[in-house]
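INFO worker-7 received task bundle
INFO bundle size: 2
INFO processing item 0
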Amino acid sequence: MLFYGYATGVVGSRKVEKATYESIPFRFIAGGLHPDHDTIAHLRKTFLFEFIELFAQVLLMAKEADVLKLDNISLDGSKVHADASKSKAVSYKRLLELESQLSAKVEELFTLGEAGNKGEWPEGLDIVQEIIFRQERLDNLSTAI
Protein backbone atom coordinates (compact mmCIF):
# COMPACT_ATOMS: atom_id res chain seq x y z
CA MET A 1 0.00 0.00 0.00
CA LEU A 2 2.86 2.37 0.82
CA PHE A 3 4.66 1.54 -2.44
CA TYR A 4 1.53 2.27 -4.44
CA GLY A 5 0.97 5.44 -2.44
CA TYR A 6 4.46 6.74 -3.15
CA ALA A 7 4.20 5.74 -6.80
CA THR A 8 0.96 7.70 -7.20
CA GLY A 9 1.83 10.68 -5.03
CA VAL A 10 -0.25 9.75 -1.97
CA VAL A 11 2.46 9.89 0.69
CA GLY A 12 0.92 11.12 3.93
CA SER A 13 -0.30 8.45 6.35
CA ARG A 14 -3.64 10.24 6.76
CA LYS A 15 -4.05 10.44 2.99
CA VAL A 16 -3.23 6.74 2.62
CA GLU A 17 -5.79 5.90 5.31
CA LYS A 18 -8.39 8.06 3.57
CA ALA A 19 -7.55 6.42 0.24
CA THR A 20 -8.36 2.98 1.69
CA TYR A 21 -11.93 4.23 2.00
CA GLU A 22 -12.19 6.22 -1.24
CA SER A 23 -9.82 4.75 -3.83
CA ILE A 24 -10.48 1.39 -5.46
CA PRO A 25 -6.78 0.51 -6.00
CA PHE A 26 -6.00 1.27 -2.35
CA ARG A 27 -9.03 -0.71 -1.21
CA PHE A 28 -7.91 -3.66 -3.30
CA ILE A 29 -4.32 -3.52 -2.04
CA ALA A 30 -5.50 -3.18 1.57
CA GLY A 31 -7.82 -6.16 1.11
CA GLY A 32 -10.85 -4.20 2.28
CA LEU A 33 -9.11 -3.27 5.54
CA HIS A 34 -8.62 0.30 6.69
CA PRO A 35 -5.44 0.62 8.76
CA ASP A 36 -5.24 3.65 11.03
CA HIS A 37 -2.90 6.48 10.01
CA ASP A 38 -0.88 5.95 13.22
CA THR A 39 -0.29 2.32 12.24
CA ILE A 40 0.78 3.36 8.73
CA ALA A 41 3.14 6.05 10.08
CA HIS A 42 4.62 3.65 12.65
CA LEU A 43 5.19 0.98 9.98
CA ARG A 44 6.91 3.47 7.71
CA LYS A 45 9.08 4.80 10.53
CA THR A 46 10.02 1.33 11.82
CA PHE A 47 10.95 -0.09 8.41
CA LEU A 48 12.13 3.09 6.69
CA PHE A 49 15.50 1.72 5.57
CA GLU A 50 13.97 -1.47 4.18
CA PHE A 51 11.14 0.50 2.63
CA ILE A 52 13.58 2.76 0.74
CA GLU A 53 15.55 -0.21 -0.61
CA LEU A 54 12.45 -2.13 -1.66
CA PHE A 55 10.84 0.90 -3.27
CA ALA A 56 13.97 1.51 -5.34
CA GLN A 57 13.83 -2.15 -6.46
CA VAL A 58 10.14 -1.83 -7.36
CA LEU A 59 10.89 1.26 -9.44
CA LEU A 60 13.77 -0.50 -11.22
CA MET A 61 11.58 -3.51 -12.01
CA ALA A 62 8.82 -1.25 -13.30
CA LYS A 63 11.33 0.63 -15.46
CA GLU A 64 12.68 -2.64 -16.90
CA ALA A 65 9.12 -3.76 -17.67
CA ASP A 66 8.52 -0.43 -19.49
CA VAL A 67 5.61 0.51 -17.25
CA LEU A 68 7.42 3.41 -15.60
CA LYS A 69 8.67 6.67 -17.03
CA LEU A 70 11.22 8.32 -14.75
CA ASP A 71 10.97 12.06 -15.27
CA ASN A 72 10.29 14.05 -12.14
CA ILE A 73 9.43 12.46 -8.83
CA SER A 74 8.37 14.55 -5.86
CA LEU A 75 8.15 12.80 -2.54
CA ASP A 76 8.00 15.25 0.31
CA GLY A 77 4.98 17.38 -0.65
CA SER A 78 6.64 20.60 0.50
CA LYS A 79 4.83 23.78 -0.34
CA VAL A 80 7.10 26.47 -1.73
CA HIS A 81 6.06 30.10 -2.00
CA ALA A 82 6.15 31.36 -5.57
CA ASP A 83 5.91 34.94 -6.75
CA ALA A 84 4.01 34.09 -9.92
CA SER A 85 0.27 33.78 -9.58
CA LYS A 86 -1.82 31.42 -11.66
CA SER A 87 -3.79 34.32 -13.10
CA LYS A 88 -0.60 36.06 -14.26
CA ALA A 89 1.24 32.99 -15.56
CA VAL A 90 1.35 32.75 -19.34
CA SER A 91 2.20 29.79 -21.54
CA TYR A 92 4.74 30.18 -24.33
CA LYS A 93 2.01 29.85 -26.98
CA ARG A 94 -0.10 32.54 -25.31
CA LEU A 95 3.00 34.72 -24.96
CA LEU A 96 3.56 34.58 -28.72
CA GLU A 97 -0.11 35.43 -29.32
CA LEU A 98 0.12 38.42 -26.96
CA GLU A 99 3.27 39.59 -28.70
CA SER A 100 1.60 39.49 -32.11
CA GLN A 101 -1.50 41.28 -30.76
CA LEU A 102 0.62 43.99 -29.17
CA SER A 103 2.67 44.38 -32.36
CA ALA A 104 -0.56 44.85 -34.30
CA LYS A 105 -1.80 47.35 -31.72
CA VAL A 106 1.48 49.33 -31.87
CA GLU A 107 1.24 49.42 -35.68
CA GLU A 108 -2.38 50.57 -35.38
CA LEU A 109 -1.36 53.30 -32.96
CA PHE A 110 1.42 54.43 -35.27
CA THR A 111 -1.14 54.57 -38.09
CA LEU A 112 -3.42 56.62 -35.84
CA GLY A 113 -0.46 58.86 -35.06
CA GLU A 114 0.07 59.42 -38.77
CA ALA A 115 -3.61 60.25 -39.11
CA GLY A 116 -3.34 62.48 -36.03
CA ASN A 117 -0.72 64.56 -37.75
CA LYS A 118 -3.50 65.38 -40.18
CA GLY A 119 -5.86 66.12 -37.25
CA GLU A 120 -8.00 62.95 -37.57
CA TRP A 121 -7.57 60.93 -34.34
CA PRO A 122 -10.26 60.25 -31.72
CA GLU A 123 -10.89 62.75 -28.91
CA GLY A 124 -9.09 62.15 -25.59
CA LEU A 125 -6.51 59.79 -27.09
CA ASP A 126 -2.94 60.58 -26.12
CA ILE A 127 -1.24 58.75 -28.95
CA VAL A 128 2.31 59.20 -27.63
CA GLN A 129 1.45 57.72 -24.22
CA GLU A 130 -0.41 54.82 -25.85
CA ILE A 131 2.54 54.02 -28.10
CA ILE A 132 4.99 54.20 -25.17
CA PHE A 133 2.75 51.94 -23.05
CA ARG A 134 2.31 49.34 -25.79
CA GLN A 135 5.98 49.42 -26.74
CA GLU A 136 7.01 48.83 -23.11
CA ARG A 137 4.68 45.82 -22.88
CA LEU A 138 6.03 44.50 -26.14
CA ASP A 139 9.60 44.88 -24.89
CA ASN A 140 8.70 43.07 -21.65
CA LEU A 141 7.13 40.21 -23.61
CA SER A 142 10.18 39.99 -25.85
CA THR A 143 12.48 39.60 -22.84
CA ALA A 144 10.19 36.89 -21.45
CA ILE A 145 10.40 34.89 -24.65
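INFO item 0 finished
INFO processing item 1
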Amino acid sequence: MKFTITLIMLSCCLALVVGTIGCQNVEANYQEGVTALEAGDYETAMQRFRSAAEEGHAGAQAAIGELYYRGEGLPRDAQEAAKWYRLAAEQGHVDAQVTLGWMYNEGTGVAQDFPEAIKWFRLAADQGHPGAQNNLGVRYRQGKIDKNDVKMAVSWFQKAADQGMAPAQYALGQMYLNGEGVQQNTEKAVELYTHAATQGLLEAQADLGYLYASREDKVPQDFLIAYKWLSLAAIKGDRIAKTDLEKLAATMTNSQIEEAKELVQKESS
Protein backbone atom coordinates (compact mmCIF):
# COMPACT_ATOMS: atom_id res chain seq x y z
CA MET A 1 0.00 0.00 0.00
CA LYS A 2 2.75 2.48 0.95
CA PHE A 3 4.79 1.41 -2.08
CA THR A 4 1.88 2.23 -4.38
CA ILE A 5 1.44 5.67 -2.85
CA THR A 6 5.15 6.35 -3.28
CA LEU A 7 4.95 5.49 -6.96
CA ILE A 8 2.04 7.89 -7.43
CA MET A 9 3.98 10.76 -5.88
CA LEU A 10 7.10 9.99 -7.91
CA SER A 11 5.04 9.91 -11.09
CA CYS A 12 3.62 13.29 -10.18
CA CYS A 13 7.05 14.85 -9.74
CA LEU A 14 8.41 13.40 -12.96
CA ALA A 15 5.44 14.68 -14.94
CA LEU A 16 5.82 18.19 -13.60
CA VAL A 17 9.61 18.30 -13.98
CA VAL A 18 9.77 20.87 -11.20
CA GLY A 19 10.74 18.70 -8.27
CA THR A 20 9.33 18.78 -4.78
CA ILE A 21 7.77 22.24 -5.05
CA GLY A 22 5.63 21.14 -7.99
CA CYS A 23 4.31 18.16 -6.09
CA GLN A 24 3.55 20.35 -3.11
CA ASN A 25 1.55 22.72 -5.32
CA VAL A 26 -0.46 19.85 -6.81
CA GLU A 27 -1.16 18.46 -3.34
CA ALA A 28 -2.14 21.93 -2.14
CA ASN A 29 -4.69 22.22 -4.95
CA TYR A 30 -6.12 18.84 -3.98
CA GLN A 31 -6.37 19.76 -0.30
CA GLU A 32 -8.02 23.08 -1.18
CA GLY A 33 -10.51 21.09 -3.22
CA VAL A 34 -11.26 18.87 -0.24
CA THR A 35 -11.77 21.93 1.99
CA ALA A 36 -14.08 23.55 -0.55
CA LEU A 37 -16.06 20.34 -0.95
CA GLU A 38 -16.54 20.05 2.81
CA ALA A 39 -17.86 23.63 2.78
CA GLY A 40 -20.31 22.82 0.00
CA ASP A 41 -18.48 25.03 -2.52
CA TYR A 42 -18.65 22.61 -5.44
CA GLU A 43 -17.47 25.11 -8.05
CA THR A 44 -14.21 25.84 -6.24
CA ALA A 45 -13.78 22.16 -5.35
CA MET A 46 -14.05 21.14 -8.98
CA GLN A 47 -11.61 23.85 -10.08
CA ARG A 48 -9.01 22.76 -7.54
CA PHE A 49 -9.55 19.06 -8.16
CA ARG A 50 -9.32 19.50 -11.92
CA SER A 51 -6.10 21.49 -11.61
CA ALA A 52 -4.52 18.72 -9.53
CA ALA A 53 -6.06 15.94 -11.62
CA GLU A 54 -4.67 17.29 -14.86
CA GLU A 55 -1.21 17.07 -13.28
CA GLY A 56 -1.82 13.40 -12.47
CA HIS A 57 -3.05 13.52 -8.86
CA ALA A 58 -4.93 10.24 -8.41
CA GLY A 59 -6.93 11.43 -5.42
CA ALA A 60 -8.17 14.45 -7.36
CA GLN A 61 -9.07 12.27 -10.33
CA ALA A 62 -11.07 9.97 -8.07
CA ALA A 63 -12.78 12.96 -6.44
CA ILE A 64 -13.88 14.30 -9.84
CA GLY A 65 -15.19 10.85 -10.70
CA GLU A 66 -17.18 10.84 -7.46
CA LEU A 67 -18.66 14.28 -8.14
CA TYR A 68 -19.74 13.27 -11.64
CA TYR A 69 -21.11 9.96 -10.41
CA ARG A 70 -23.18 11.52 -7.64
CA GLY A 71 -24.11 14.60 -9.63
CA GLU A 72 -22.97 16.92 -6.85
CA GLY A 73 -22.52 20.49 -8.04
CA LEU A 74 -22.89 19.43 -11.67
CA PRO A 75 -25.15 17.18 -13.77
CA ARG A 76 -24.72 13.49 -13.08
CA ASP A 77 -22.66 11.83 -15.80
CA ALA A 78 -21.72 8.19 -15.23
CA GLN A 79 -19.60 8.02 -18.39
CA GLU A 80 -17.53 11.02 -17.35
CA ALA A 81 -17.27 9.53 -13.86
CA ALA A 82 -15.92 6.28 -15.30
CA LYS A 83 -13.30 8.20 -17.29
CA TRP A 84 -11.91 9.91 -14.21
CA TYR A 85 -12.17 6.81 -12.03
CA ARG A 86 -10.13 4.92 -14.63
CA LEU A 87 -7.37 7.54 -14.59
CA ALA A 88 -7.12 7.20 -10.81
CA ALA A 89 -7.49 3.42 -10.86
CA GLU A 90 -4.67 3.04 -13.37
CA GLN A 91 -2.41 4.80 -10.87
CA GLY A 92 -3.36 2.32 -8.16
CA HIS A 93 -6.00 4.39 -6.34
CA VAL A 94 -7.72 1.56 -4.49
CA ASP A 95 -11.17 3.13 -3.99
CA ALA A 96 -11.28 4.12 -7.66
CA GLN A 97 -10.41 0.55 -8.60
CA VAL A 98 -13.29 -0.81 -6.52
CA THR A 99 -15.79 1.70 -7.91
CA LEU A 100 -14.66 1.15 -11.48
CA GLY A 101 -14.98 -2.60 -10.97
CA TRP A 102 -18.52 -2.11 -9.68
CA MET A 103 -19.38 0.07 -12.69
CA TYR A 104 -18.20 -2.64 -15.08
CA ASN A 105 -20.07 -5.24 -13.04
CA GLU A 106 -23.32 -3.28 -13.29
CA GLY A 107 -22.82 -1.69 -16.71
CA THR A 108 -23.01 1.81 -15.26
CA GLY A 109 -21.29 4.43 -17.40
CA VAL A 110 -19.50 1.67 -19.29
CA ALA A 111 -20.51 -1.46 -21.18
CA GLN A 112 -21.08 -4.33 -18.77
CA ASP A 113 -17.93 -6.44 -18.71
CA PHE A 114 -17.55 -9.03 -15.94
CA PRO A 115 -13.90 -9.92 -16.68
CA GLU A 116 -13.01 -6.22 -16.55
CA ALA A 117 -14.89 -5.89 -13.27
CA ILE A 118 -12.98 -8.83 -11.82
CA LYS A 119 -9.69 -7.31 -12.98
CA TRP A 120 -10.28 -4.11 -11.00
CA PHE A 121 -11.70 -5.92 -7.98
CA ARG A 122 -8.61 -8.14 -7.88
CA LEU A 123 -6.21 -5.19 -8.12
CA ALA A 124 -7.96 -3.51 -5.19
CA ALA A 125 -8.25 -6.77 -3.25
CA ASP A 126 -4.53 -7.38 -3.60
CA GLN A 127 -4.02 -4.00 -1.95
CA GLY A 128 -6.12 -5.22 0.97
CA HIS A 129 -9.43 -3.45 0.23
CA PRO A 130 -12.12 -5.41 2.16
CA GLY A 131 -14.94 -4.38 -0.20
CA ALA A 132 -13.04 -5.69 -3.20
CA GLN A 133 -12.17 -8.88 -1.32
CA ASN A 134 -15.84 -9.37 -0.51
CA ASN A 135 -16.79 -8.75 -4.15
CA LEU A 136 -14.34 -11.41 -5.32
CA GLY A 137 -15.78 -13.79 -2.76
CA VAL A 138 -19.26 -13.18 -4.14
CA ARG A 139 -18.17 -13.75 -7.73
CA TYR A 140 -16.25 -16.93 -6.88
CA ARG A 141 -19.21 -18.24 -4.91
CA GLN A 142 -21.48 -17.55 -7.86
CA GLY A 143 -19.12 -19.42 -10.16
CA LYS A 144 -18.52 -16.30 -12.24
CA ILE A 145 -14.71 -16.61 -12.15
CA ASP A 146 -13.86 -20.31 -11.87
CA LYS A 147 -16.90 -22.54 -11.71
CA ASN A 148 -17.47 -24.25 -8.36
CA ASP A 149 -14.34 -22.76 -6.80
CA VAL A 150 -15.99 -22.18 -3.44
CA LYS A 151 -12.68 -22.53 -1.61
CA MET A 152 -11.48 -19.34 -3.28
CA ALA A 153 -14.73 -17.71 -2.21
CA VAL A 154 -14.03 -18.75 1.37
CA SER A 155 -10.49 -17.39 1.13
CA TRP A 156 -11.57 -13.93 -0.06
CA PHE A 157 -14.52 -13.74 2.32
CA GLN A 158 -12.17 -14.62 5.18
CA LYS A 159 -9.77 -11.81 4.26
CA ALA A 160 -12.62 -9.29 4.19
CA ALA A 161 -14.25 -10.70 7.33
CA ASP A 162 -10.98 -10.38 9.23
CA GLN A 163 -11.12 -6.67 8.47
CA GLY A 164 -14.64 -6.40 9.88
CA MET A 165 -16.57 -6.42 6.58
CA ALA A 166 -20.10 -7.34 7.71
CA PRO A 167 -21.39 -8.76 4.36
CA ALA A 168 -18.31 -10.99 4.17
CA GLN A 169 -18.81 -12.15 7.75
CA TYR A 170 -22.40 -13.02 6.94
CA ALA A 171 -21.53 -14.85 3.70
CA LEU A 172 -18.78 -16.79 5.42
CA GLY A 173 -21.20 -17.63 8.23
CA GLN A 174 -23.61 -19.06 5.68
CA MET A 175 -20.86 -21.21 4.22
CA TYR A 176 -19.88 -22.57 7.65
CA LEU A 177 -23.52 -23.21 8.48
CA ASN A 178 -24.04 -25.20 5.27
CA GLY A 179 -20.60 -26.78 5.00
CA GLU A 180 -20.02 -24.96 1.71
CA GLY A 181 -16.33 -25.01 0.84
CA VAL A 182 -15.47 -25.57 4.51
CA GLN A 183 -16.20 -28.18 7.14
CA GLN A 184 -19.66 -27.54 8.56
CA ASN A 185 -19.38 -25.65 11.83
CA THR A 186 -22.52 -24.11 13.31
CA GLU A 187 -20.68 -22.51 16.21
CA LYS A 188 -18.36 -20.71 13.80
CA ALA A 189 -21.37 -19.65 11.73
CA VAL A 190 -23.07 -18.13 14.77
CA GLU A 191 -19.87 -16.32 15.71
CA LEU A 192 -19.62 -14.76 12.26
CA TYR A 193 -23.33 -13.93 12.14
CA THR A 194 -22.98 -12.21 15.51
CA HIS A 195 -20.11 -10.03 14.27
CA ALA A 196 -22.18 -8.98 11.25
CA ALA A 197 -25.40 -8.54 13.23
CA THR A 198 -23.67 -6.33 15.79
CA GLN A 199 -22.67 -4.05 12.92
CA GLY A 200 -26.33 -3.78 11.95
CA LEU A 201 -26.52 -6.12 8.96
CA LEU A 202 -30.21 -6.96 8.66
CA GLU A 203 -29.76 -10.41 7.07
CA ALA A 204 -27.42 -11.52 9.84
CA GLN A 205 -29.78 -10.25 12.53
CA ALA A 206 -32.75 -12.11 11.03
CA ASP A 207 -30.87 -15.38 10.55
CA LEU A 208 -29.26 -15.21 13.98
CA GLY A 209 -32.62 -14.66 15.63
CA TYR A 210 -34.04 -17.64 13.78
CA LEU A 211 -31.13 -19.87 14.79
CA TYR A 212 -31.50 -19.04 18.48
CA ALA A 213 -35.27 -19.45 18.33
CA SER A 214 -35.36 -22.74 16.42
CA ARG A 215 -32.64 -24.56 18.36
CA GLU A 216 -30.53 -25.55 15.40
CA ASP A 217 -27.72 -28.06 15.97
CA LYS A 218 -25.12 -26.71 18.42
CA VAL A 219 -27.03 -23.45 18.85
CA PRO A 220 -28.50 -23.31 22.35
CA GLN A 221 -32.11 -22.21 22.37
CA ASP A 222 -32.21 -18.72 23.82
CA PHE A 223 -35.49 -16.88 23.45
CA LEU A 224 -34.10 -13.60 24.81
CA ILE A 225 -31.27 -13.38 22.28
CA ALA A 226 -33.58 -14.61 19.53
CA TYR A 227 -36.12 -11.92 20.39
CA LYS A 228 -33.43 -9.24 20.37
CA TRP A 229 -32.12 -10.03 16.89
CA LEU A 230 -35.52 -10.70 15.36
CA SER A 231 -36.80 -7.42 16.76
CA LEU A 232 -33.93 -5.45 15.29
CA ALA A 233 -34.45 -7.08 11.90
CA ALA A 234 -38.21 -6.53 12.06
CA ILE A 235 -37.73 -2.85 12.91
CA LYS A 236 -35.77 -2.52 9.66
CA GLY A 237 -38.68 -4.01 7.72
CA ASP A 238 -37.82 -7.71 7.41
CA ARG A 239 -41.24 -9.34 7.09
CA ILE A 240 -40.05 -12.89 7.77
CA ALA A 241 -38.29 -11.71 10.93
CA LYS A 242 -41.52 -9.98 12.01
CA THR A 243 -43.48 -13.21 11.52
CA ASP A 244 -40.84 -15.24 13.37
CA LEU A 245 -40.87 -12.67 16.18
CA GLU A 246 -44.65 -12.93 16.58
CA LYS A 247 -44.42 -16.72 16.77
CA LEU A 248 -41.59 -16.49 19.30
CA ALA A 249 -43.38 -13.95 21.48
CA ALA A 250 -46.39 -16.28 21.71
CA THR A 251 -44.19 -18.85 23.47
CA MET A 252 -42.59 -16.40 25.92
CA THR A 253 -43.73 -15.11 29.29
CA ASN A 254 -44.38 -11.42 29.84
CA SER A 255 -41.29 -11.13 32.03
CA GLN A 256 -39.15 -12.74 29.33
CA ILE A 257 -40.47 -10.32 26.74
CA GLU A 258 -39.75 -7.33 28.98
CA GLU A 259 -36.22 -8.57 29.59
CA ALA A 260 -35.73 -9.15 25.88
CA LYS A 261 -36.94 -5.64 25.09
CA GLU A 262 -34.24 -4.28 27.38
CA LEU A 263 -31.67 -6.18 25.31
CA VAL A 264 -33.11 -4.64 22.16
CA GLN A 265 -32.84 -1.17 23.69
CA LYS A 266 -29.21 -1.73 24.70
CA GLU A 267 -28.27 -3.01 21.25
CA SER A 268 -30.00 -0.04 19.61
CA SER A 269 -28.32 2.59 21.78
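INFO item 1 finished
INFO post-check item 1: The radius of gyration is 23 Å.
INFO post-check item 1: The first helix runs from residue 2 to 16.
INFO worker-7 idle
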